[in-house]
Amino acid sequence: MSLSFEQLYPGISPKGRAYLAGLAEHPHAPRFRNASGHRLRSHELDEVRTFHERERGSPSCCEPHPAWLDPFVAHLREHVPFFRHFPSGAFADLPTTSRADLARDIAAFVPDNLPTSEIIQFETTGTTGHRIVIASHPKVTANHLAFLKKALALHGIELSATGGHTAVVLAGFQESSFTYTSVNPLHDEAGIVKLNLHPNDWNDPSDRARYLDWLAPELVTGDPLSLPELSHLGMTHRPKAAMSTSMMLSPALRQELSNRLGCPVVDVYSMNESGPIAAKGPVGEDFHLLQSRLLVELLDPLGNEVAPGQRGEITLTGGYNPYLPLFRYRTGDWAARHPTDSRRLVDLEGRSPVRFRDGQGRWLNNIEVSRCLAAFALPQFQLHQDSQGTFHLRLHPAARDADNIRQALETLLASPVNIGALEPKDKVVAYTSDLANHPSVAGPTSRPVA
Amino acid sequence: MTQSVLLSRWIDHLSRTGPQTLEAAANNSLLGALLWDTYHRQGVSLSLDDLGRLLPLEGSRVATAIACRILTLAPVGVSRTGLDTLIQTTLPQLARFSKPQQWLTDEDGREEFVRLVVRDLGLAVEGESPQVSADRLQSVSLLERRRLAEASREAEVRARAVREALVAEAAKAAADKYSRE
After folding, report:
1. Chain A residues with CB inside 8 Å of B161's CB?
2. Is A444 helix (H, G, I), strand (E, B) or coil?
């Protein structure tokens, strides 16, 4: 049963309604395949406004034991079935949770004091085999924007679009995708458009640039697959910023995109389970934590916090989705804490460490490979070492400089590297190895770029 | 600091419950006097209205009389709230699911009775951590098992409602998102 227009856009003004219609009816518009809306009633809208205000003025969480933690854990024990019989003890001694726990039964993570009538859901895709459904609420999705604004603020950028203009375009580049038009009541019903740049969705591929120029969005969000496509469309409009989420973005690709799009490209580390976690600032490669009520631990495989400067698995507690309270949730992603600033993560990689044995028998961490490849504008790649020790690098069809990439890798790995084509996919496992891993490697040997 | 009690002493005291205690259960004045004494030992003076509220209906009179007997061993300083919970909530529930004979002669029944009293009064069992006491109560208590079974049923009903809500929502239009992950 689909929702009515009034349920999707409670309280929409005649002006907002007209603008919304215009977004879909424009002669160069793509085929929008779905309907969506903010679904916020007036009292919820007030709560969202309050949340945005509070977050804007709050620093990100950086203490090892913030004041909200104990009441949060007590709430979990009282109201969340999964945690009802959790062992007692100090926070740092309690077991961690993982995506597999969510996949087993997401209902066990929904607090029993929240109404089921207002649940919304979305599925996450992944290559781990744990496809999961996330329970959420329209307020949560509206609150997500507060953290994107904080990420933009790192770059001195503020969204200011109002009614009759488009604030955000969410650009995908996939065979098929969920697409829609909407308006944001927090910003005077400015437009939000989620579109797919794949030519399948357009009457004429050249309509893409025309439509985007007409929309003139302040912000474009995408990923290392859709943003390169966007940058080659010939769009003349210059957004205030582009934002890349979901996948790793190499520094070289970010710079290239920034040059082509004529705006900063903000790299955001984000997950469906938690929303935006951290974002890169205008200088350097460090990620700045974004959320004020999300405790980020960096853990070794035994669940102990690693020392500053050492890499550990990013593990989350808290968050802003009351329908999915996270508790010591292992993300599968790894980073180190900045030695002097606990609000910054360094060497963030969307995967567990994999070590490769080079041609001279030395072991290298995949982070060294990432640093080597950082100079190349690679949308996606996959490096695999087979059981004979031979390296195979598969590159996305849009990748250039294959010869230079091979040369750089062969120098690093002191071994020949076979280059092949990577079948474009939403998410890939970047580093894998068939070799028995080096004894010092902890955890699983591979992890998708998520 | 939580006061602790020697469980074996309390169980022994319970097992030696005599006919006078059981007779008191049948007599409003005697049972009222037992209750008044029990609260008075803890520094609480009950009014007639209080007594009227506390005097149990038919089902839990024996349990109340037995509880008053073993509470003569309780240290001074237990909370009024704990006593009220025991008399007004726990003992009537216990009486619904088990028979007085079990509390007096059955080994587990005696232990269950005493442990429920100790728990409601916020006391600790000597030599046991709170977790061990809770686990032990679960293993001997019919009441506790029933409560857990009900909680489990409720949890299953709730989980089903959540799953159904998620499925129903999947069929509707989504809410706006600001990222594509």
Report:
1. 116
2. coil
The domain covering A355-433 belongs, at the CATH homologous superfamily level, to ANL, C-terminal domain (3.30.300.30)
Banded model confidence at residue A170, pLDDT cuts 50, 70, 90:
very high
Q: How far is A221 from chain B (nearest CA, A)?
A: 7
Q: A142-154, pLDDT tens digit by residue?
A: 999 999 999 999 9
Question: Cα–Cα–Cα angle for A72, A78, A81, nearest 5°?
Answer: 105
* Amino acid A126: pLDDT: 53
Q: Are A189 and A15 in contact (CB under 8 A)?
A: yes
Over residues A42-91, the pLDDT tens digits come to: 999 999 999 999 999 999 988 889 999 999 999 999 999 999 877 777 89
pLDDT of residue B57: 67
For residue A69, give the nearest of A345, A336, A307, A325 by alpha carbon.
A325
What DSSP letter does each residue of A303-357 carry, written as one string? Answer: SPBPPTTSEEEEEEEE-S-TTS-EEEEEEEEEEEE-SS-TTEEEEEESS---EEE
CA distance A357 to chain B (A): 33
Q: Say how many domains are in chain B.
A: 1
Question: Is B177–A3 a contact, with Cβ atoms under 8 angstroms apart?
Answer: no
Closest Cα partner for B51 from B72, B69, B30, B67? B30
What angle do helix axes B107-120 and B130-140 make, rounded to 10 degrees?
A: 140
Decide if A37 and B176 are in contact by the 8 Å CB cutoff: yes
Q: How far is A1 from chain B (nearest CA, A)?
A: 6
Which 3 state secondary structure label does DSSP give A406? helix
Q: Which residues in chain B touch residue A177, judged by CB atoms under 8 angstroms apart?
A: 180
Q: How many CB pairs under 8 A join A and B?
A: 114
Q: CA B149 from chain center: how many Å?
A: 16
| CATH classification code of A5-348 | 3.40.50.12780
